[in-house]
Amino acid sequence: MLDDKMLSDGGIISNYPVQTLKNMGADIIIGVDVQDSLLQQKELQSATAILMQIVSFGMYADMKKNVEMTDIYIKPDSISNYTVTDFGQYKKIYELGYKSALQHLGALKKLKSNYKKENDKAIISKIKDSISIDKFIFKGKTSYSDEYLQGKLRIKTPDTISRTKFKQGIDNLMATQNFNSIYYRYTDKNTLSINVRENPDKAFIKLGAHYDKLSKIGVLLNYTVKNPLGKNDFFALDLVIGNNMRYELDYFIDNGFHWSYGFKSRLRPINTNIPFQAISGGNTIFSIDLHSFDFSNQFYMQTSFDRKYNIKVGAEHQYLNIYSFDLSPSTNDKFHLAGFGLGALVGVNLSFGRYFFIQSEFKAGYINMPDVRTTPDASDKASQAFFFTQLNVLFGARINIKGY
């Protein structure tokens, strides 16, 4: 597939293109013929054989004339015993070719002694390890912008990158699973033309089950959809239906090297009874009823530059409400904590070397707890408000395991 054209092997039309070489300026033709001849009528015993015979008519139509135009024609003996897929027999095939070439050794030596090139100085062009790209041309995309594709490639224009970095960019674009195929062509004008074929699968549903002593049993539902509102966006919802119904929501608009936007929301209620047992005997002496309600929302923006740095800024709101009842024969204490928090965050991710990275996130915010109680008495009420800062740093490495 090249530029929306489906191409096939030219050998179907001309498998021994002597005239084409002459037209390109070849002075001497040395031909090694490894083709089979046309089958006899008694050998055409299947539909496949008949079809191959029909295809081969065009290949052999000019064969006699092509052989006459060949200066040295080499036809290895017994080569018809092998097929184009006999890669494991390459040593035997090589020996056949070597023996056939020895039969023409005199003609080859004579050719060497009589043929004099006008310029014996060979010009060897060194293949560059770098690629200069001034412009991208993207074709085939409908649900993703040019900025998104270029961001996934991690190539800004104009730029000069190594072939290894370019391959990593193509692999990174393919790893999004948004495209079934990616074809590219590099022109002399430092323009890279990329033709993508989008994955038609846009929505996914996953089901599962979960159980732990704190949250109890629940049915897990994940719903993921690409491009629900426009180009480049992504929506995911994790929903747990059970004793403690909860969810996590994530919506993100990926604009590549430009600022991207995201929103996250989370609800985690917990209603459970925690028994406390004596060390000896294993009898429950009292228990605690715990009721927790955690609701938080986060809005953030992020961008990347220089293919190594990612920056993230955002704001977060959290509401927390906790009730706890101490159920024992002698007491019935209650604990209540309610409050909210507002915060801002800044994150910087850095990649260095081939495998290593550092992720860092700094948070600062304000927490207000206007209703703190430790007993059932209504007069037993306190409040607390404070500012906080938090720094998280993660150092890690990535190892790619390829299946080919």
First-last Cα distance: 22 Å
Please give the radius of gyration in angstroms.
36 Å
Global mean pLDDT: 80
| Content of β-strand | over 45%
Structural class: alpha+beta
Rough outline: elongated
User: Quick one: biggest sheet?
Assistant: 10 strands, antiparallel
What is the number of beta strands? 17
Q: Order the strands across the largest sheet as they lie in space.
A: 8-9-10-11-12-13-14-15-16-17
Helix share, percent: 10-25%
**SSE order, one letter for each helix or strand:** HEHHEHHEEHEHEEEEEEEEEEEE
Number of domains in the coordinates?
3
Number of helices: 7
Low-confidence stretches: none
In short:
With 404 residues, the chain is an alpha+beta fold.
Helix and strand arrangement:
Elements: H1 18-23, E1 30-32, H2 47-60, H3 63-68, E2 72-74, H4 90-102, H5 105-114, E3 130-133, E4 135-139, H6 146-153, E5 159-162, H7 163-175, E6 179-186, E7 191-198, E8 203-212, E9 216-226, E10 233-242, E11 246-253, E12 260-277, E13 284-305, E14 309-327, E15 334-352, E16 356-373, E17 382-397
Parallel strand pairs: 1-2, 4-7
Antiparallel strand pairs: 3-5, 6-7, 8-9, 9-10, 10-11, 11-12, 12-13, 13-14, 14-15, 15-16, 16-17
Structure description:
This protein has 404 residues and is of the alpha+beta class. The protein has three domains: 10-113, no CATH class; 130-198, Roll (Ubiquitin-like (UB roll)), CATH 3.10.20.310; 255-397. Helices cover 17% and strands 46% of the residues. The protein has helices spanning 18-23, 47-60, 63-68, 90-102, 105-114, 146-153, 163-175; strands at 30-32, 72-74, 130-133, 135-139, 159-162, 179-186, 191-198, 203-212, 216-226, 233-242, 246-253, 260-277, 284-305, 309-327, 334-352, 356-373, 382-397. It has a ten-stranded antiparallel β-sheet, with no helix packed on it. A three-stranded mixed β-sheet has the order 4-7-6, covered by helices on one side. The chain has a two-stranded parallel sheet with strand order 1-2. A hairpin with a 6-residue loop joins strand 12 and strand 13. The longest helix has 14 residues, at 47-60. 7% of the residues are buried. The model has no long low-confidence stretch (mean pLDDT 80).
